[in-house]
């Protein structure tokens, strides 16, 4: 494909020697293809996740790098006794093998005892309430028309068939339905096969079987099989993010019929919020993040404020977010943040009001970074209006006060250079409208730079101002994305004339472009337009993308 | 005036009102709070007699999954405030767990 052929108007072309718009010299996020997460889910990460326990994860790699004397740490552990042992179980370190001998046995048996008592209490609960479902409980009755008519159901159950999560309705009222699901899954597993998808009428039933957990989507939406599977993978990662893979695995190894809801209490809202975001935000579909448009000098200044004032040992990532958009990300050399991990962080901030009240300190597991242990996140909003949120992620659980001091210094410098005001203004201005792009008949677009895993998209203008129209637009993008990424027949270019819109999608090795035109546009016009659009994005790339990836 | 620093940790089951108690004390207002994630850190200065007391308060999350993190917050605390919901006996029984350490 070379630039400037005479048939330029018939097939779009992009000179592959020129970096695509938005491609920076340095990479800020781990680059992705759409579905990268998914394919890895099948082959890579499951295998990666099932690696033997003694092989070191990313977290212990960082911890060990900065703490060479393990012997000293071990002594300290013996002093601090069992509670600290329990803590260390969560923060998986390399010396785990050594500590497995005695202390682990005692905690294990104790946990068993404790659980035995509590499970007894729990099991009397559901059976009692199970009776009331059939007879009288109407408010949460899952057989209602309202429940049935939900467009996308998501269920999570344990391998033993115990309900863990349901997007709608109380999961403990769904014991029967989940039992049927588990029976279907097990039946096929018995024959060394696996159940992937069922279609019944307008509904798709998509199954994701992971070790310990089964996830099921039942949807009558535009989403394709792969898109639903992709969303289930996100839900699974969200659960890992709360518990770590290590803990999840350990629990189910000890008790196959453990009621995981106990440990997930309070985390349902993260799954709810994630599912809501995935139905509205293209970032998940694209495997990319949207950056807050800012002059590059301002962004550079903000990054410098962080680099200069948060240059402390063991700090892995510093992330500044506003309104689900990335302002900047500073990372430890050698380590990258995967977009899907960043999505989980964005979801955490988006779903938690409590961070607005005070500085917070919370464990978080980033499944792509290291599914076996927790990072510790310092979370604090920087402005009184609680729009700009700073997250500092470290492997050291005792660093809260150090990071709190860093935060103060960062805020001081940001104020000195009026950066916080610049952010507030950028947020108030909203992003940009399609009219600024100045291309006739182009209604909306999404552009993703693959190498940097960032995307840009204009505001939703007329006709996409109502909720119904916005959902319809999202459905069009789902369709376009599905057709282009279809595993049976992947496409480079798709020109689709619909009743209300004409769609043009284009994939190259460097970018993905999805455009929506008015219905009357011709193919030639559309191709001329997207060439113009690419030039416009190139011109604006300084503002729309993070081109430089600062490191500590 | 003499200065004292006091480190306080607030513990108890989820939903009993730990954050409400703390925000009421620190900000002198009642407001609707949402479940704490991990732990929140508050500071507050009061004068008692001849002493100016600088309190730093760790308001911990009550959710079970955060329980194993608790030692991190109470390790160097001068005082622990155990909170339960008077209308929920289970939350009172849970207090024993914090006192006895199991």
Q: What is the topology?
A:
The complex is a heterodimer of chains A (552) and B (102).
Chain A: H1 36-49, H2 58-66, H3 70-90, H4 96-99, H5 103-135, H6 145-148, E1 152-158, E2 163-166, H7 175-190, E3 197-200, E4 203-210, E5 213-219, H8 225-243, H9 245-254, H10 261-264, H11 268-280, H12 282-286, E6 289-290, H13 296-309, E7 315-322, E8 325-331, H14 339-351, E9 359-364, H15 367-370, E10 375-381, E11 388-394, H16 400-416, H17 419-428, H18 434-437, E12 442-449, E13 454-456, H19 467-485, E14 493-497, E15 502-507, E16 511-517, H20 523-544
Parallel strand pairs in A: 6-13
Antiparallel strand pairs in A: 1-2, 1-5, 3-4, 4-5, 7-8, 7-11, 9-10, 10-11, 12-13, 12-16, 14-15, 15-16
Helix pairs in contact in A: 8-11, 11-14, 13-16
Chain B: E1 2-12, H1 18-27, E2 39-48, E3 51-60, H2 70-74, E4 79-83, H3 89-100
Domain FUZ/MON1/HPS1 second Longin (chain A): 313-411
Biased composition (Polar residues) (chain A): 120-130
Biased composition (Basic and acidic residues) (chain A): 64-88, 107-116
Q: Give the name of the CATH architecture of the largest domain in chain A.
A: 2-Layer Sandwich
Total number of distinct structural domains of chain B: 1
Number of strands of chain A: 16
Mean pLDDT of chain A: 81
Which residue ranges of chain A are poorly predicted, with pLDDT under 50 across at least 5 consecutive positions? 1-9, 36-55, 68-139
User: How many distinct helices of chain B?
Assistant: 3
Major sheet: arrangement of strands of chain B: 2-3-1-4
Provide the β-strand percentage band of chain A.
Answer: 15-25%
Predict the CATH topology of the largest domain in chain A.
Answer: Beta-Lactamase
> Average pLDDT across residues of chain B?
91
**Number of DSSP strand runs of chain B:** 4
Please state the overall shape of chain A, judged from the principal axes of the Cα atoms: globular
- Please give the alpha-carbon distance between the first and last residues of chain B: 41 Å
Determine Rg of chain B (CA atoms, Å): 14 Å
| Class of secondary structure makeup of chain B | alpha/beta
């Amino acid at each position: 494909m070379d630039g400037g052929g005479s048939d330029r108007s018939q097939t779009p072309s992009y000179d592959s020697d020129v970096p695509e718009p938005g491609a920076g010299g340095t990479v800020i996020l781990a680059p992705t293809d759409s579905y990268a997460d998914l394919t890895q889910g099948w082959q890579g990460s499951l295998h990666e996740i099932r690696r033997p326990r003694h092989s070191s994860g990313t977290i212990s790699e960082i911890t060990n790098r900065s703490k060479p004397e393990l012997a000293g740490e071990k002594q300290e552990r013996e002093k601090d006794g069992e509670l600290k042992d329990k803590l260390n179980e969560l923060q998986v370190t390399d010396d785990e093998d050594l500590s497995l001998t005695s202390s682990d046995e005692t905690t294990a048996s104790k946990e068993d005892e404790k659980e035995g008592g509590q499970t007894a209490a729990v099991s009397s609960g559901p059976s009692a309430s199970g009776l009331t479902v059939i007879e009288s409980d109407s408010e949460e009755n899952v057989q209602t028309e309202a429940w049935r008519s939900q467009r996308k159901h998501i269920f999570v159950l344990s391998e033993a068939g115990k309900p863990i999560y349901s997007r709608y309705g109380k999961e403990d009222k769904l014991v029967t339905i989940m039992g049927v699901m588990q029976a279907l899954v097990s039946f096929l597993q018995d024959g060394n096969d696996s159940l992937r998808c069922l279609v019944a009428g307008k509904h798709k039933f998509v199954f994701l079987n992971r070790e310990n957990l089964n996830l099921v989507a039942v949807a009558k939406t535009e989403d394709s099989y792969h898109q639903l599977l992709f969303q289930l993978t996100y839900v699974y990662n969200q659960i890992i993010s709360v518990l770590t893979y290590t803990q999840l695995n350990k629990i189910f190894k000890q008790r196959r019929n453990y009621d995981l809801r106990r440990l997930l209490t309070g985390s349902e809202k993260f799954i709810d919020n994630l599912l809501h975001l995935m139905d509205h935000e293209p970032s998940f579909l694209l495997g990319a993040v949207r950056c807050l448009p800012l002059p590059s000098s301002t962004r550079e200044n903000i990054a410098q404020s962080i680099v200069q004032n948060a240059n402390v040992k063991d700090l892995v990532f510093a992330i500044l977010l506003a309104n689900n958009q990335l302002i900047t990300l500073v990372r430890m050399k050698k380590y990258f943040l995967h977009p899907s991990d960043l999505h989980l962080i964005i979801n955490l901030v988006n779903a938690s009001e409590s961070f607005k009240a005070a500085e917070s300190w919370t464990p978080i597991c980033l499944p792509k970074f290291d599914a076996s242990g927790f990072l510790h996140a310092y979370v604090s909003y920087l402005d009184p209006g609680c729009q700009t949120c700073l997250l500092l992620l470290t492997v050291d659980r005792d660093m809260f006060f150090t990071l709190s001091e860093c935060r103060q210094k960062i805020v001081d410098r940001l104020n000195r250079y009026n950066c916080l005001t610049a952010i507030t203004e950028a947020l108030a201005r909203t992003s940009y409208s399609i009219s600024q792009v100045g291309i006739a008949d182009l209604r909306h677009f999404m552009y993703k730079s693959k190498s940097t895993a960032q995307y840009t998209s204009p505001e939703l203008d007329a006709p996409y101002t109502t909720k119904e129209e916005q959902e319809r637009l999202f459905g069009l993008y789902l369709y376009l994305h599905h057709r282009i990424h279809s595993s049976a027949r992947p496409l480079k270019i798709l020109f689709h004339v619909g009743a209300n819109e004409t769609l043009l999608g284009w994939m190259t090795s460097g970018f993905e472009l999805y455009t929506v035109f008015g219905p009357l546009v011709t193919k030639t016009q559309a191709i001329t337009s997207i060439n113009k659009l690419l030039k416009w994005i190139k011109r604006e790339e300084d503002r729309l993308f993070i081109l430089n990836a600062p490191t500590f | 005036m003499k200065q004292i620093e006091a480190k306080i940790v607030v513990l108890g089951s989820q939903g009993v009102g730990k954050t409400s108690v703390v925000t009421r004390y620190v900000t002198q207002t009642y407001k609707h709070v949402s479940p704490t994630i991990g732990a929140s850190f508050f500071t507050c200065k009061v004068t008692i007699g001849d002493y100016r007391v600088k309190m730093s308060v760790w308001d911990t999350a009550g959710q079970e999954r955060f329980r194993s993190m608790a030692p991190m917050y109470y390790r160097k605390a001068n005082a622990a405030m155990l909170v339960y919901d008077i209308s929920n006996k289970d939350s009172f029984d849970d207090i024993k767990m914090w006192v006895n350490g199991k």
